[in-house]
Write a structure and sequence with these properties.
single chain, alpha/beta, Rossmann fold, five-stranded parallel beta sheet
Length: 161
């Protein structure tokens, strides 16, 4: 599994702030349909953008637990939650997608965005997500197939593989 260092987190934070990714998260959150008082799990939270946005939708009685294998990601997510005054609604901790340390049927929804592509045992990660979901809960996964992206430039050097 890949762990992200501080430079990776800074790069992700910048990329996740672009209008296209902000809009992608907006559409993803619409699919999640988080409601006040719900409890959600953000698997592979990275710098915490999605966790904080979901926290605004479930707060003040609801809560988001955000996990990541990378301590740098956890630190960045905690800092974002504090900066956005959401520390009471976002609990960030180091965690493993394939071994979730939560009781069965804990969460109303589980989200995983751009995460399972880094997990060697995706089936186990999905089993774990299903285990911690309450009856009728929602699991939403978003992965991009970066190999399918087509980049266009007038500079042939940039297009050379």
């Amino acid at each position: 599994m890949t762990n992200f260092d501080a430079a990776d987190i800074a790069r992700l934070d910048k990329a996740y702030s672009t209008p296209q990714i902000v809009d992608q998260r907006r559409r993803f959150r619409a699919a999640v349909a988080a409601r006040p008082r719900e409890f959600g799990l953000d698997v592979g939270c990275g710098p915490g953008h999605l966790a904080c946005e979901l926290a605004r939708e479930v707060a003040p009685e609801g809560r988001i637990v955000a996990i990541d294998r990378s301590p740098e990601s956890v630190d960045a997510s905690k800092a974002r939650a504090v900066k956005e005054e959401l520390a009471d609604a976002v609990d960030v901790q180091v965690g493993d997608a394939t071994a979730l340390e939560f009781p069965d049927e804990t969460f109303d929804f589980v989200v995983a965005v751009q995460v399972y592509c880094f997990v060697p045992n995706v089936a186990r990660a999905i089993e774990e997500a299903a285990r911690v979901l309450r009856k009728g809960g929602r699991l939403l996964v978003l992965e991009s197939d970066w190999d399918m992206c087509i980049w266009k430039s007038r500079d042939p050097v940039l297009l050379a593989v």
